[in-house]
Structures are given as C-alpha cells and as structure tokens.
Amino acid sequence: MPGAQKVSENLSAQIIHDEPFFRAVADEIEIFAAAYAGRLPVMLKGPTGCGKTRFVEHMAWRLKRPLVTVAAHEDLAAADLAGRFLLAPEGTVWHDGPLTAAVRMGAICYLDEIVEARQDTTVVIHPLTDARRSLPLDKKGELVEAHPDFQLTISYNPGYQSAVKDLKESTKQRFVAIEFSYPEPSIEAEIVMREAGVEAPIASGLVDVALRSRNLRGQGLAEGASTRMLIHAAKLLRGGAPLSAALRSAILLPITDEPDLREALGAAIAASLPNGLSLQ
Ligand SMILES: Nc1ncnc2c1ncn2[C@@H]1O[C@H](COP(=O)(O)OP(=O)(O)O)[C@@H](O)[C@H]1O
Ligand SMILES: [Mg+2]
C-alpha cells in the first residue's frame, strides 16, 4: 500500500501515513470510532471484496494507530498468534507472535477471516476481548496486559460458514458488529471509477454486470461479482483488453468452475452488453 511502512518485517505492523481511500456507505466510520474509543472489539461482517480490509486500513490511518493484519487459515495455531520459543545459537529465544506484538505496542490487530482458524486458536483472543484485556503466554509464563491503545478487529463472512465452521457463540458475543454489503450502484460505480481510473459509463456498466451476477446468488453461485472483481475488470479495460475478454477474465472465470453456471452467468452478463457480444 502506498504510504504504509512496515514497523518490523516479521511482525508486519504498518504505520499508514497516507489516507487510504474509503467511501463510507453508512455510519461505519462513526461506529468504529465509537467502538475504538471504548476499546470494544469489532467484527466486520460481509461478503468478500466489499471493502472490509480497506475500511480497517482507513480506520487505522484515521485513529493514527499501527495496524497488524493476520490472515487466518485452517493451520493457524495459537502459537502463530501468540508467539513461540525458537532455537537460536544462545539457546531458545522467545519470539512474540503478531497478536502479542500488537497487544504490547497498542496497535489495531485485524484478524482476517477468523473463522478459518481452528477453534482452539480462536479462544486465545477471549481474555483480550473482555474486561481482562490481557494475553496469557502460557509457554513463557507471562501475562501481557494490553497497551491502552490496543484494539482487536476481526472479519467474518457469514455466507461461507457451515455449522462445523462457525464462530463459537462465546466468541461472537464479545464483538460489536458492523455489517458490510455491496454499496448502492451509484456509490459502487464511484468506487470503481476512483480505484481503476475509468470513466463513469464504464463503471456503471460494470456495476450493472455485478447486479446481474448477484441475482444468481443462491442458484448455485456462492457469491456474485464483488466490487474487487469490478475493479479488476475495469483495470483490464484500461489496460486495453476488449470488453468481453475483460469480463470473462475478471469475473466469469474466477467466480465459478461449474460449466452450467458459467453459461448462465455469461448469458446474464451478455444481456446487459451491447448487441452481439458474447463471453463464451
Ligand atoms: N467502500 C469502499 N471504499 C473504497 N474502496 C473500496 C470500497 N469497497 C471496496 N473497495 C475496493 O474494493 C477492493 C476490495 O476490497 P477489500 O477491502 O479488499 O475487500 P474485503 O476485505 O471485504 O474482501 C479494495 O481494494 C478497494 O479497491
Ligand atoms: Mg479482506
């Protein structure tokens, strides 16, 4: 990201100097600021590619806090967040994990797609998200009190979750939630224009394509085209790709491997295009 600087390569804490562009859709900035003022943990709920990560970057800049981002995955262990002893020439040496580093320095820690992590990993955040505001490092025998400026934010896409892969009730209930969804068409077009540097008619044409794809949600398609995908398509167009190729590469191919669905989506998209264009 331009204007961001890593505080430490290992811990990937960023100080964001330049304002990351974020187009607010509702009162999300005010709610997050109020939550931060009370140091409440925040959960950003919403589909992929709708601006959650950009929002956290914007808020970290606005609140002048360093940002530590961790992308959760199914092998993410508690020690990957908290830290571990590693072998060094002088013996074993403790290395803080990114969460511990954020807790000590007073950063905003953003755990992206937290539900991907194993449940035993998720419970590590419990003592940090209630009145204790502390992180026990059992292996090291240390109880780290959170820096007064520390705050925890997680993202969560309710669309993907199965019963097996869901946050525990006791985890969910610790968070203030802010809901994200794709913005209304005129705002989404503004975002696409701004992010990809295309003209208004192109941006609104792409938003129209997205709306059609989102109508197919639930009919086999897990998600419609995200704002991110529209920006990709717009950038391909800007780079000189023909319209049908840009839509095919940025939206149709990434979104599904299912031939029937691809055909249905291709037809739905083609219906919004100038006569005779096909995506197949
Ligand atoms: N409200 C918004 N304001 C500015 N840019 C946005 C907004 N929503 C989406 N974007 C754009 O879409 C891209 C994808 O958003 P991102 O924050 O990465 O999505 P998420 O984290 O929800 O998957 C961003 O890089 C940004 O270009
Ligand atoms: Mg994200």
Automatic annotation (TrEMBL):
Residues 188-271 form the CbbQ/NirQ/NorQ C-terminal domain. Residues 41-175 form the ATPase dynein-related AAA domain. InterPro entries: ATPase_dyneun-rel_AAA, CbbQ/NirQ/NorQ/GpvN, CbbQ_C, P-loop_NTPase. The keyword Secreted does not apply. One of its GO terms (molecular function) is ATP binding. Belongs to the CbbQ/NirQ/NorQ/GpvN family. PANTHER family: DENITRIFICATION REGULATORY PROTEIN NIRQ, MOXR FAMILY PROTEIN. This is CbbQ/NirQ/NorQ/GpvN family protein.
